Amino acid sequence: MSVETQQTWLQIAVEVTLQQLEDTEAALLDSGAVSITLTDAADQPILEPAPGETPTWDNCIVTALYADPSLQTEILISLQQLLIPTVASKLKIELLEDKNWVRAWMDNFHPMCFGQKLSKEKQLWICPSHITPPEPKASNIILDPGLAFGTGTHATTAQCLEWIANNDQSDLTVIDYGCGSGLLGIAALKRGAKHCYGIDIDPQAMLASQDNAEKNNVAAQLSLSQHDDIAGADIVYANILANTLVQLYTNIVKLCKPQGHIVLSGILNEQIDDVISCYTQDFDFDAPTTQGDWACLSAVKRS
After folding, report:
1. How buried is 122 (Cβ within 10 angstroms: 0-12 exposed, 13-18 middle, 19+ buried)?
2. 3-state helix, strand, coil in the chain (%, to 5)
3. Helices vs. strands in the chain: H and E counts, helices first
4. Beta strands at 173-177 and 233-239: parallel, antiparallel or unpaired
5. pLDDT tens track for 64-75
6. Please, are residues 124 and 143 in contact by the beta-carbon 8 Å criterion?
7. Which of 13, 20, 54, 276 is the most exposed, having the fewest neighbouring CB atoms within 10 Å of its CB?
8. What domains sit in the chain, N to C, each tagged with a CATH number?
């Protein structure tokens, strides 16, 4: 009888500047890394690049995986020789047990209720497909983890869903700006909105939003686009990042009709004033809501 063994990986990560990135990637590959991943080390959005451009962040975290952890000592000696001292001194080392990450996520992804103080038929639930919705009378959204952002587990998305659950969407036209998985738009449609326009520059988001809309029987009410040339929405949802929200101010103003609402999320508590000061010339803000380190802002556009 054969025994299935589980792969263990050596992971080495380091934060570098843009100027250090190329040499760091080369050193990690030369030392035997089988994969390299780049992630943002700060709150710096990258908007749609021009044709032929491949932009990256000014500061990023480079993460390398090695297939044989028993070679850790040799790998570290090699990196001390290949990397400049300021980078070599910041290496973070970790052993990772291989697993079915999608299944692990699914096992820990449970139904979530938004608007818990509302009557059961007005509550909004997010449920994975392998679990029967706990409250059949509620507005239930079937959603499984995917490649596009937005499942309701992160505070930024959760705060938007709480706003949707507690505010009437009946017969309204809404925009889900940076739609990701399409969750916010689908939630608004489930709560009575007549149409949603989903906007995202990521083709994967287009596919995820369409798929999730079909699973929830609202595909006919969802229009998807990579361009924000829509106008006159009753509500604009934008769960992005604070710096991006500031950069996209003129775009979002045009999307929202007079007396319409904006709901902005992806904002750290210390960034609240920056976002409000940018939008306050056209919008009257409600008191911010916060969850942990994150804030959600809602406002009405002045006539």
Report:
1. middle
2. 35, 30, 35
3. 10, 15
4. parallel
5. 999 999 999 999
6. no
7. 54
8. 8-98 (3.30.70.120), 103-301 (3.40.50.150)
Q: Give me the amino acid identity at 172.
A: L
Task: Provide the β-strand partners of residue 113.
Answer: 125
102 to each of 26, 97, 141, 167, 168, how far by Cα in Å?
30, 14, 19, 33, 35
Pairing of strands 112-114, 92-97: unpaired
Q: In this structure, what token pair is assigned to residue 278?
A: 């940018």
Chain mean position to CA 226: 17
State the Cα–Cα distance between residues 269 and 294, nearest whole angstrom. Answer: 5
Cα–Cα distance, 36 to 238 (Å, whole number): 31
Report the distance separating Cα 31 and Cα 75, nearest Å: 6
Per the CB < 8 A criterion, the answer to whether 293 and 269 are in contact is yes
Kindly report, residue by residue over 125-137, the tens digit of the pLDDT: 999 888 888 899 9
Task: Return the beta strands (E) in 165-268 as ranges.
Answer: 173-177, 195-199, 222-225, 233-239, 256-268
- Considering only 32-36, 108-112, 194-198, which range has the smallest mean pLDDT? 108-112
Burial of 78 (0-12, 13-18, 19+ CB in 10 A): middle
Q: What is the Cα–Cα distance from 245 to 250, expressed in whole angstroms? A: 10
Measured in whole angstroms, the distance separating CA 190 from the mean position of its chain's CA atoms is 21
Give the global pTM.
0.70
Pairing of strands 92-97, 283-285: unpaired
Which of 69, 72, 75 lies closest to 27 in space, CA to CA? 75
